[in-house]
Amino acid sequence: MENKDIYIGSHVGMGAPEFYLGSVKEALSYGSNTFMFYTGAPQNSFRKPLSELKIQEGRKLIKEAGIDESKLIVHAPYIINAANFSREDLYEMSINTIVSELRRTAGFGVGIMVLHPGSHVGMGAESGILALAKALDTAFACDGTNVKIAIETMAGKGHEIGITFEQVRSIIDQCKYPERLGVCLDTCHISDAGYDIINDLDGVIEKFDKVIGLDKLLVVHVNDSKNPTGAHKDRHENIGYGYLGFDLLYRVVHHPKLIGIPMILETPYYNEKAPYKQEIEMLRSGKYVDNWRN
Ligand code: FE
Ligand code: FE
Ligand code: ZN
Hints:
The chain is of the alpha/beta class. It has helices at 19-29, 55-64, 88-107, 125-142, 165-174, 187-193, 197-211, 246-253, 276-285; strands at 8-10, 36-37, 73-75, 112-115, 148-152, 181-186, 217-222, 224-225, 236-237, 263-265.
């Protein structure tokens, strides 16, 4: 059944020559009514000035296509690690990058930025959570925007923090600006972290509501996982090709408690092809096509 309150899309690129206009066109080509993008390369903080990114042209097309801009998402670059006090230079660079990315996000007219909570690098989760909360205090005190940060739930590889709902709650509680924080729930990550959504999706959603509150949920990343529950690996898989499976991910996208929340695919390319058009179509309609990648 089609539901017009389903907002579903994928991450998209942003490259020369069309930049943001190209991002919007890419999203529309998949049949998306939302999307997520990086304001530059995900792996570094080198950034082109906003004036070169065809933002007005992109926003014009967004409007014409009837896309609700409040459902769009920016993802912060991976190099940020604000969960470790021990390297002062990296900690400071991370705070500065958070501030400049918040401002860039606002410059696109987008209101939500996903951030990986980072790694405590052996200092312990409690120290990592405190470091991140302090970094966010510093950033929110001076960025001058009202962009919200959605802390992404992590799979628990290495020394990541934010792998349990309690840890994510603790980050929000220790920050002086909790109204500017929300959560990004990644289906691959929470399964890898040990939450048994395969057998008890409703129970896990209820737990999230109890520990953090569903009002804090700003984004869902819809990914299948190459690994079983609790594996702590973080390897995304195409919809229906992993341990989570199509039926479960369909139920996530259409879950009555998650209606209205942007659903973003970050599944891998196969044969150098983006899978998103097919995946979005199947997740909207509920009609799974066996071996759709072939
Ligand atoms: Fe992410
Ligand atoms: Fe994710
Ligand atoms: Zn991931």
